[in-house]
Amino acid sequence: MLIRDEWTACDESELKRLGSDYDSNAFAVMPGFLSSPGLRLLAKETGRLLDHSVRKDFQMECMDGSTRRMRTLGAPVIDALSTLVPDLYYSPDLLQLIGDIVGQEVYPLYEDVDRYVLNSLVEPGDTFGAHFDDYPLSVVVVVEVAPEGARPRLLQDAASVLGVMDEYVEVELAAGDAYLLRSDTTAHMVSPLGRTGRRLGFNFAYALSPQTTGGTESPGLLYSRTQSSDETSPVNSYTEWDPLEEVIVGVATGSAIPRESERMIRATMPEEWQDMFLANGGSPFPAEIVDAAQEELDRLADELSGMGVTVRRPDAVDWAGRGGYTSAMPRDCLLVVGSRIIEAPMAWRSRQEETTAYRALLAEYGAGGAAWVSAPRSDPDRVAADSGPWAVNESAPAFDAADFVRVGRDIVGQLSNVTNRAGVRWLRDYLGTDFTVTLLDVDDPHAMHIDATVLPLRPGVVLVNPTRVSERALARSPFARWDKIVAEGPRPAGAVPRCMTSGWINMNVLSVDEERVVVDSCDVGLARQLERHGFQPIPLPFQHLNAIGGSFHCAALDVRRRGTRESYV
Q1: 554 catalytic, yes or no?
Q2: 132 backbone dihedrals φ, ψ, rounded to 5°
Q3: Could you give the residue ranges of the DSSP H alpha helices within 351-442?
């Protein structure tokens, strides 16, 4: 039980004292609100959630320019990552306690981004500046306190929020305490954090009548997944075509033949190579293929670097020794949306640890202000389907990052043998109202990754696979009014064994900007098509990387492009 028994069965005299405090001061403190085991459990959960928080550093204009310098996490993301916090918020014991203190029925909120939030002061000078709340009641549950500074300051019936800067009551709190505040008429703030420690806590908002809409823009600004300024984040990419500034190019060294279930292999791999995978899964890829693929990746990195693009590389990992697959395709396991970089949960067992190769880069981006998030992972056996159209079921979220392409405010994805509806729901919940996630209706029983089905090349122009998506499906998609470049056909088999991809891998191109597109040097027909539509193809050899399972779009994750979140639909 998170709440101490004394508070779930509060005696009448204590309720009377709390009610008197609330009536007189507009707040009431509940010391030792969390039980000792409850505090430990919530502190552990807070530490995990803090890794997914977003840095905010700006002045809130709608609150007289008061400062926000902190890390925040709103309800949609908490819902996607935690059951503990929502369970506490909706707890009948907590609702009854609050109602008894204020002397009337209390209503939880169900859709507001700030119904329950994590507010974290973690750097010297961090502060949650003066403000009123949109809803009348707040319960603040304190998880960690700082030895100096970062205390709540309150001013009842303030004429303006800035009144609390000069005249206030400062509340002393300990970890595990909570306090109830009449927050829509009491100006309140948290004083700046000192040189040491942190101040971590959850704020729960409640109403005194059936839910109504909040009145200010403050929650949307404070708890959106967008950094206070994307220009300050090392991660910033909203489309597949904005001018490329920084990219992660994969590493083929250490690649292994993936060991997967027979159902998954038969659902996703070319028929002529399926028995090879079932017989040799877990073995290293042939050295001659890996070495040649590594040379192709190095040449791609050099070409991009010569264009002025910052190129980063993951660590080489002995994937055969770890039961894994490859570090060659960063876009398969990592999804960049604006200033967020999301680790996909991955349905293949051999890909569960794939982001290990990128850990140092991810930590660097996170420390620089990017929102680094890992989607919840489940045992692949749990999401493996015994029947149905796909090799994954709906028991837990599953998706590969490469099943989505970015079109500004719109994310277009597909269901596939590695992406389920539960995974799409998680992504929608995490991104919140900043983005729209639309599923494209594809006709491909072997679907795995959307970028050989549709690939947007610039505003209003999309490359289309005519065998996998119909005109009717496109007419119901965000690409309805776009010009379609219909790919002429799959690439014929060549000298290099294409054991993990179809001939439509030729569509897997990389846009450097709205004109320059990197294509495989053997795909002359596609290059000519692109030229006829005003693009400048940049031909490079890449067939050995195809043998390992991808091409340019898979092998290059655009960490930063020079662009902003816009609507292109």
Answers
A1: yes
A2: -105, 160
A3: 359-367, 380-383, 421-431
- Containing 73, the helix (H) or strand (E) segment is strand 66-73
* Residue 5: burial class (beta carbons within 10 Å; 0-12, 13-18, 19+): exposed
Tell me the longest C-alpha to C-alpha distance in the chain.
85
**Which single residue is written with the structure tokens 């080489």?**
316
DSSP line for 2-40: -B-HHHHT--HHHHHHHHHHHHHHSEEEETT-B-HHHHH
- Could you confirm whether 87 is annotated as catalytic? no
Please, what is the Cα angle at 422 between 357 and 435, to 5 degrees?
Answer: 80
Q: What φ, ψ does residue 310 adopt, rounded to 5°? A: -75, 125
Amino acid at 325: Y
**Closest by alpha carbon to 563, among 458, 464, 483, 460?**
458
Which residues face 248 on adjacent strands? 312, 557
186, two tokens: 């009491």
Report the C-alpha gap between 540 and 306 in whole angstroms. Answer: 14
Contact 151, 171 (CB under 8 A): yes
Catalytic residue among 449, 451, 520, 523: 449
Residue 208 half-sphere exposure toward CB, CA atoms < 13 A: 16
The string of DSSP codes covering 160-203 is SGGGGGTS-EEPP--TT-EEEEETTTEEEEEPPB-SS--EEEEE
When the pLDDT of each residue in the chain is averaged and rounded to a whole number, the result is 92
Which residue among 444, 544, 554, 558 is the active-site one? 554
Mean pLDDT of 262-274: 94
505-564 per-position pLDDT tens digit: 999 999 999 999 999 999 999 999 999 999 999 999 999 999 999 999 999 999 999 988
Instruction: For helices 92-102 and 12-25, give the axis angle rounded to 10 degrees.
Output: 60
Helix (H) or strand (E) holding 538: strand 536-540
Tens digit of pLDDT for each residue in 28-84?
999 999 999 999 999 999 999 998 888 888 888 889 888 898 999 999 889 888 999
* Residue 511 CA to its chain's centroid (Å): 23
129: its two tokens: 């500046």
Pairing mode of beta strands 116-121, 152-156: unpaired
Percent over 90 (pLDDT), the chain? 77
Give the span between the Cα atoms of 538 and 536, in whole angstroms. Answer: 7
Amino acid at 353: E
d(CA 15, CA 307): 69
Which tokens go with 260? 């997967």
Backbone φ, ψ for residue 136 (5° rounding): -70, -30
DSSP 315-345: ----HHHHT---BS-HHHHEEEEBTEEEE--
Structure tokens at 25: 């001061």
What is the rounded CA–CA span in Å between residue 483 and residue 481? 7
Q: Which of 114, 133, 400, 444 is catalytic?
A: 400
The string over 548-569, giving b where at least 16 C-beta atoms fall within 10 Å of a residue's C-beta and e elsewhere, is bbbbbbbbbbbbbbebebeebe
Closest Cα partner for 129 from 59, 79, 50? Answer: 59
CA distance 391 to 448: 10
- pLDDT at residue 391 tops 90: yes
Active site residue 188: no
